[in-house]
């Protein structure tokens, strides 16, 4: 029997894995990424193996979930059949001045360790970006916000969990290699296994799916329907005021049936927001329908605006591109309602932290509903209001003037009579109204084709002067309304924007006095209720 003696110095210069002595690279660099908000940031993961006490050191401003990767990675490597010698392993996440969060670096860290031991050729790692969380058995768990990451890197190749493959490949100009576990990844990188890449999965569903709700089910309320058509056509915020059971919520829930179909760019942006929030079912692909969010009135300011230790989008961002319905508006907390101010004007919300600022899109159609008083029957012919003047004033004052001023349209929704409820007269369906809405939106897109916005509600004062100047009679009418109703400058501009939308629905290039008159009636509640 032959006896082979291997010196200690020789063993230190080699790496032993699967019982085979191989030569490794002492330092490996591997590319990864993570999302801050809905924006992707690249991270270089450097793995170095040196002599010293067996330990795994993580540097680079990592949060607790990343620091816990030390145990997940060691156990996942062991359970995948990779026996790593007990060395000193140093892992650096660069750039070091940006805080990293989440468990998406488990996967690249494990691959970097394997490459340092010669299991994976380093040149193979340089071709891809790796993200993924490891289970203790070496399987890859799905991640949140994957499409936000892949869409931020054009002309790139990703290796990531198989359950995220379809979502990740929705981004343009990227190649996605979906893998299930660590063992499969090593075989793919060493050429022992072939993995077909996913590229640019098309957005097939360009139209909303069929809705179970329809406007033909709403009886009466012609004034409210007209106001709602104007609101959707010009993207104007609207407030319904009426007693309980008058149909405010019924009207609001049918608004998605009137909204125009989304473009691919809109669908991608909305999907990114919901992916970061973790509200997309795995494998569902791009969101095909505009969101409709209806938070309860007990929602906090953070729930509406977003935030937290690791900032996540709130209801306002989750309703981006769709509808945010606030039922029982005065019952919301005052500080929660005040967070609406900025997004209603700017279309985005910025969450500031000590180290950075995160901006989420928040351009939504605000639809609010409220009772006229605490008991709900002020002005109702069916029941007598039992509220005192003080109670009514206190209830209505829960909505601050600045918030109310930012809502374009205020419309009363009165109680319906028995004859109206039981009427068999057919009502317009959602598809008929939607055709008019889409035609109106087409006019606006053509008008603002050289602008950054596409709807009348977003016009700035300069464009209002160019596109929304009324005729002489209309000018006199709005001047009289300003004096009599004590309207603010913001209300003045909103009347002109609403009048522009009414003119577009009527097919008129010039805003006429009847358009101004109809627009003014949607602001009359400023004096009646809050004057």
What does the secondary structure layout of this molecule look like, with pairings?
Blueprint: H1 8-12, E1 15-17, E2 20-22, E3 27-36, E4 39-50, E5 55-59, H2 64-67, H3 69-79, E6 88-94, H4 106-116, H5 122-125, E7 129-130, E8 133-134, E9 140-141, H6 146-150, E10 156-161, H7 165-168, E11 174-179, H8 182-189, E12 198-199, H9 222-234, E13 238-241, H10 248-253, H11 264-277, E14 292-293, H12 301-305, E15 306-307, E16 312-313, H13 315-318, E17 323-326, H14 334-338, H15 341-346, E18 348-352, E19 357-361, E20 365-370, H16 389-396, H17 401-405, E21 409-412, H18 418-421, H19 430-447, H20 461-467, H21 472-485, H22 489-506, H23 513-521, H24 525-530
Helix content: 25-40%
CATH class of the largest domain: Alpha Beta
**Tell me, what's the shape?**
elongated
- The figure for the number of domains is 3
Secondary structure tally, helices: 24
How would you write the strand order of the largest sheet?
14-17-20-13-21
| Major β-sheet profile | 5 strands, parallel
Q: Care to give the gist of this entry?
A:
By secondary structure, this protein is α/β, with parallel strands linked by helices.
What does this structure look like?
With 531 residues, this protein is of the alpha/beta class. It has three domains: 8-199, 2-Layer Sandwich (Ribosomal Protein S5, domain 2); 217-452, Rossmann fold, CATH 3.40.50.300; 459-531, Helicase, Ruva Protein, domain 3, CATH 1.10.8. Helix content is 37%, strand content 18%. It is built from 24 helices and 21 strands. The chain has a five-stranded parallel beta sheet. A four-stranded mixed beta sheet has the order 3-4-6-5. A hairpin with a 2-residue loop joins strand 3 (27-36) and strand 4. It is elongated. The termini are far apart.
């Amino acid at each position: 029997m032959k006896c082979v003696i291997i010196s200690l110095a020789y063993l230190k210069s080699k790496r032993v894995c699967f019982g085979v002595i191989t030569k490794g690279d002492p330092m490996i660099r591997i590319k990864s990424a993570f999302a801050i908000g809905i924006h992707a940031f690249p991270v270089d993961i450097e793995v170095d193996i040196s002599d010293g006490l067996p330990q795994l050191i993580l540097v680079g401003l990592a949060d607790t979930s990343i620091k816990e990767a030390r145990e997940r990675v060691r156990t996942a490597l062991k359970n995948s059949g990779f026996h790593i010698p007990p060395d000193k392993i140093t892992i650096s996440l660069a750039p070091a001045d940006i805080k990293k969060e989440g468990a998406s670096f488990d996967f690249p860290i494990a691959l970097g360790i394997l490459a340092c031991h010669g299991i994976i050729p380093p040149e193979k790692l340089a071709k891809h970006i790796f993200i993924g969380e490891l289970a203790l058995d070496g399987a890859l768990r799905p991640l949140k916000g994957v499409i936000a990451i892949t869409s931020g890197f054009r002309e790139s190749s990703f290796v990531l969990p198989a359950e995220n493959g379809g979502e990740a490949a929705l981004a343009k100009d990227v190649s996605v290699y979906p893998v299930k576990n660590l063992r499969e990844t090593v075989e793919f990188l060493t050429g022992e296994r072939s993995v077909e890449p996913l590229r640019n999965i098309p957005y097939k569903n360009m139209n909303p799916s069929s809705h179970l709700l329809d406007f033909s089910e709403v009886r009466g309320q012609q004034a409210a329907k007209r106001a709602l058509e104007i609101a959707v056509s010009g993207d104007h915020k609207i407030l319904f005021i009426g007693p309980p059971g008058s149909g405010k919520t019924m009207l609001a829930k049918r608004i998605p049936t009137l909204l125009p179909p989304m473009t691919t760019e809109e669908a991608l942006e909305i999907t990114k927001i919901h992916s970061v929030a973790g509200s997309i079912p795995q494998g569902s692909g791009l969101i095909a329908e505009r969101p409709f969010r209806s938070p309860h009135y007990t929602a906090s300011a953070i729930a509406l605006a977003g935030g937290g230790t690791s900032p996540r989008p709130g209801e306002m961002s989750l309703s981006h591109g769709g509808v945010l319905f606030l039922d029982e508006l005065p019952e919301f907390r005052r500080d929660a309602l005040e967070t609406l101010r900025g997004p209603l004007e700017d279309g985005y919300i910025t969450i500031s932290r000590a180290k950075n600022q995160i901006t989420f899109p928040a351009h939504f159609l605000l639809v609010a509903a409220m009772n006229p008083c605490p008991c709900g029957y002020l002005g109702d012919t069916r029941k007598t209001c039992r509220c005192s003047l003080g109670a009514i004033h206190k209830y209505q004052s829960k909505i601050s003037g600045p918030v109310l001023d930012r809502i374009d349209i205020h419309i009363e929704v009165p109680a319906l009579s028995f004859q109206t409820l039981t009427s068999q007269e057919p009502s317009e369906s959602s598809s008929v109204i939607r055709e008019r809405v889409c035609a109106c939106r087409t006019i606006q897109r053509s008008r603002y084709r050289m602008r950054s916005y596409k709807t009348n509600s977003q016009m700035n004062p300069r464009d209002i002067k160019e596109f929304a100047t009324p005729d002489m009679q209309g000018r006199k009418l709005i001047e009289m309304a300003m004096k009599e109703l004590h309207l603010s400058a913001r209300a003045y501009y909103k009347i002109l924007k609403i009048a522009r939308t009414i003119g577009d629905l009527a097919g008129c290039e010039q805003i006429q006095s009847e358009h101004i008159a109809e627009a003014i009636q949607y602001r009359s509640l400023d004096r009646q209720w809050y004057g």
